[in-house]
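Internal tracking record. Fields below are filled automatically when a chain is submitted to the structure queue. Please do not edit lines marked as system-generated. If the sequence contains nonstandard residues, flag them in the REMARKS field before resubmitting.
Queue: standard
Priority: normal
Entity type: single polypeptide chain
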Amino acid sequence: MSEKAKRVLSVWVSLTPEEREEAVKLINEYQNADERKKKEISLESLNESHWFAKSTTMNFGPLGGECPYCGK
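SYSTEM-GENERATED OUTPUT FOLLOWS
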């Protein structure tokens, strides 16, 4: 299994059942979309993560190990 796949699985098992259901819906929407819609979904996701990163206080990352989300 690739490192990226391991990170996805690590995040997946940390989700609540409701969050998993939401993730499955979003992934299915992405998989069934045409290329234009896929770009739109990707940009939405990227914009949300940038908004979140900008809205939080300074974060020095996890201590004593690597980040379970990005692996760094």
